[in-house]
Write a structure and sequence with these properties.
Blueprint: E1 2-7, H1 12-22, E2 27-33, H2 40-49, E3 55-59, H3 65-71, E4 77-80, H4 87-92, H5 94-115, E5 120-126, E6 138-140, E7 145-147, H6 164-184, E8 187-193, E9 195-197, H7 209-219, E10 223-226, E11 232-237, H8 238-250, H9 252-255, E12 258-262, E13 269-271, H10 272-283, E14 289-292, E15 301-302, H11 307-313, H12 321-334
Parallel strand pairs: 1-2, 1-4, 2-3, 4-5, 5-8, 8-12, 9-11, 10-14, 11-15
Antiparallel strand pairs: 6-7, 11-13
The structure holds nicotinamide-adenine-dinucleotide.
Nicotinamide-adenine-dinucleotide binds next to helix 1, helix 5, strand 5 and strand 9.
């Protein structure tokens, strides 16, 4: 029996991850979440309705060091997903953002070091640690920006440039997680994730833009675009991210102490305007949108170079951007009653 702890496990990535892990009766999965994200309660309800015998939920906050020390004792694998996830919110309240993302991560690392130092820790970091990437040479097309150099995307050698309180707090955690391998020998792996999309994602204007656009489009509501809409992002379907987590566990001797960029890569990119156009065709309806000022630190292009992860684990993208978006459209359509609050 493997004991697995998922912080932020009632969120989008955590719910999909838990569902996958729970299929294996040899796993015992404990989710730890304060349910602060809108939609997390619905995800939890879904998980509980499946009546898994190897599942447990603990309501708790990543900032509660005392509670963490009581609970995190004999786990084999820990996924750290709990986070304040929005750049916008981090700008409004940088203290809270720091306490959850940076300090909360340090609490977890210290708990692991003291209570279960042989556990593997997988941390979900973000491509935002590379900042605005304003030095990249770009060409501006009609509907998108194009990378002129770095045609294979951004790899892990790119300089860190934390931008926005969210970038700073996630980047701090990212570096601490890696350093706990170097200094204390904790088996940690950091994934710097691009945009991830999939079911159980209650995307809103602040985070989860692909799901947000799909929900707005299906509900027939106007989309606000910050910037000129030509920003390009690579999109990865959730099952491919989970596969990468699992492959890193399988190859932990090679992957421990490593950092991996992960995203849809060069073949799976959309600009905001292109996604709207794609959705208009798919849903056969006109989508209304309006432009607003750029947001701080917004990258004009981010495309992950996945070569390191592929080399270390044999991982490959399996679900392309169109298939992924179709799956998400189907989930939103089936679950419209769940997303009325968005
Ligand atoms: N979804 C993406 O595209 C993406 C991209 C890059 C990085 N990430 C990272 O992946 C992780 C998971 O993201 P997600 O998309 O599933 O987000 P999410 O908001 O759906 O999930 C995060 C979960 O953490 C919980 N949480 C928030 N604050 C907490 C706290 N103080 N204590 C305990 N639980 C708390 C929330 O209730 C939520 O269930 C985050 O660390 C995020 O920064 C996500």
């Amino acid at each position: 029996m493997k004991k697995i702890f998922i912080t932020g496990g009632a969120g989008f990535i955590g719910t999909n991850l838990a569902l996958e892990l729970l299929k294996n009766k040899e796993n015992y999965v404990v989710i730890y979440d304060n349910l602060s994200r809108k939609g997390a309660e619905k995800n939890l309800q879904y998980l509980q309705e499946q009546k898994f015998e190897n599942f447990e939920f603990i309501k708790g906050d990543i900032r509660d060091y005392k509670k963490l020390k009581e609970i995190v004792k004999d786990f084999d694998i820990i996924f750290h997903l709990a986070s304040q996830v929005a750049v916008t919110k981090s700008v409004e309240d940088p203290f809270e953002d720091f306490e959850i993302n940076a300090l909360g991560t340090l609490y977890l690392l210290e708990t692991i070091r003291k209570n279960c130092p042989s556990a593997i820790l997988i941390y979900s970091s973000t491509n935002k640690v590379y900042g605005e990437l304003s030095h990249l040479k770009l060409r501006e097309g009609k509907k998108r920006y194009y990378l002129i150099d770095k045609k294979n995307g951004i790899d892990e050698k790119e300089s860190l440039d934390f931008h926005s309180p969210y970038g700073c707090s996630k980047g701090t955690a990212d570096q601490y997680v890696r350093d706990y391998y170097r200094i204390y020998g904790i088996k940690t792996v950091v994934f710097r994730q691009s945009c991830i999309a999939g079911p159980f994602q209650y995307g809103n204007e602040d985070q989860g833009w692909v799901a947000h656009f799909i929900i707005k489009a299906i509900k027939g509501e106007k989309i606000n675009i910050y910037g000129n809409g030509k920003q390009v992002r690579d999109i990865l379907f959730i099952s491919d991210l989970i596969n990468a987590y699992q492959l890193s566990l399988k190859n932990i001797e090679k992957c421990q102490g490593e950092i991996f960029n992960i995203g849809g890569g060069v073949k799976n990119t959309f600009s905001l305007l292109e996604l709207i156009e794609f959705l208009e065709k798919k849903l056969n309806k006109k989508i209304e949108y309006e432009f607003f000022d750029w947001r701080p630190g917004d990258q004009k292009v981010f495309i992950s170079n996945n070569k390191k992860l592929e080399k270390y684990t044999g991982w490959k993208v399996k679900i392309n951007k169109k298939e992924g978006i179709e799956k998400l459209i189907n989930w939103v359509k089936k679950n419209l009653s769940l997303i009325v609050f968005l």
